[in-house]
Amino acid sequence: MMPSDGRSAEGREALNRPVGNNPSDGRSAEGREALNRPVDHNPSDGRSAEGREALNRPVDHNPADGRSAAGREALNRPASQGTLDRDLLDAFVPEFEAEAVRLAMVRDAAAAGRALDQLRAMAAALGAPSLATLVDRTAQRLDPLDWPALHAGAEALARQAVAIGAAGTDLPLAQPAAAQPEPELAAPPAALVDREMLEAFAPEFATACDRLAKASDAAAAGRALDGLRAMAGAVELTSLLRLLEPAAGLLDPFDAAALHALAARLREQAARIVAAGADVAPPEPEPVPDVAAPVAAALDAELLAAFTPEFAAACTRLATAPDAAMAARATEALRGMAASFGLASLGAMLADAPPDDPAALPGLAAALVGHAAAIAAAGHDLPPPDSLPAGRRRVLVVDDSAMMRRLVREALALDADFEVVGEAADGIQALAAMQRLAPDLTMLDIEMPELDGLGVLRRWALEGGGAVVIVSSAARPGSATAVTARRLGAAGIVGKPSGALSPDLRERQGVALLRTARRAAGLPVEAGR
């Protein structure tokens, strides 16, 4: 029979045995007691009382993930509280700010989309969720396209990047930003406009309106309209942008009288804005017949169709007159033709003809032909151009390849009507040279460092003069680049047949280049030499 303490007879005997009689295993009485302890006193899992207590503790006292309170707090801490690498920030902020400025300067949705993609990638690389969120909000302004909102979004991105750089950590966006940007980004019609900005804007806008009113063809009018849209968008003058909305329909077919009337309305509205110091609503639009009413009596279409080629032939005789007597006779013939049709503008252009310099005859003849063609397209007389080209055409050659610049220069040297007055190796140099030299014609590459050819065209459309011909392998006929260049006002496009460096340009493209250059410069193509 097993006693209640659960020990065997040998165990009890060992405990009662004198120490000196202990077996040879060397264990003490306590050791043997431990060996013979009942099972319930010596659990098989070997845990102490504290261990068993921990196992039986409620779950909320012993979290299953084993993390301490400090660990759980660190995991749940918002990411924005993390400090960003200072070296990375110092490199990131100026690049991100520059990209935001580029977004504010673009003038088409495709370029804006590319700029936003770049900003999104940069924000992700830095690990700044606030910038990524702000990029996504700004991207919503692409469809439908809202230029003022895009510009405001670009400014907000630049400000947030600078603030993150100063703080060294990502910063939360203002709470109302998700609900309230729309009324702020699309300024109400009566929003006050900075007085200094208005004082700088008014004369430039008036000059651009004058260019629109005096445009003699659709290309010149399109450039003037692009400049006016850009200026109105930069100052966020919604009323002017609304007046400009229907202007594209006046270019094809070209309606000089309606464009002249539109220029007058834009000038008047800009004057109202300056006087009020705010973007005020324009007056009720005049009826369409009044806006589109011709400034001169309509001309018979059949008579114009017969007149134009005869007048062009007489202009060719003027351009190729071998001596002063022949030039005088050709001039008198042209005056008589203009008077017979009552075309006062052509008569005014011929008032001081023929010029004393025989080299100016081709330029005068080309200007007369171009103006006569514009009159035929409009169906009525037009204001004469501001000035007539005279003498040799001054040309600026722009290409990042020195060899290509030399080849284009040599091709132009074959024509006595052209004189290369300068060269530029990138878009920034090109804009400076265009401002300094005021060339009659610029031969412009597309793919260049610093600023590409399309960027130069956008700036030139706002403030440049003369004509531009694209010489580039990136602007093949029908390509998106060619279409954009034409929309921005390029007078002609010549492709590079063998890529960026084409030593065969003179042989394979020399004739095409000269014909395109003469046409863009207003010279008779048949007179090339």
From TrEMBL:
It comes from Falsiroseomonas frigidaquae. This is Response regulator. InterPro entries: CheY-like_superfamily (IPR011006), Sig_transdc_resp-reg_receiver (IPR001789). Keywords: Phosphoprotein. Residues 1-81 are annotated as: Disordered. Gene3D superfamilies: 3.40.50.2300. Pfam families: Response_reg (PF00072). Residues 394-511 form the Response regulatory domain. Residues 27-64 have a biased composition (Basic and acidic residues). The lineage of its organism: Bacteria, Pseudomonadati, Pseudomonadota, Alphaproteobacteria, Acetobacterales. The modification 4-aspartylphosphate is found at D445.
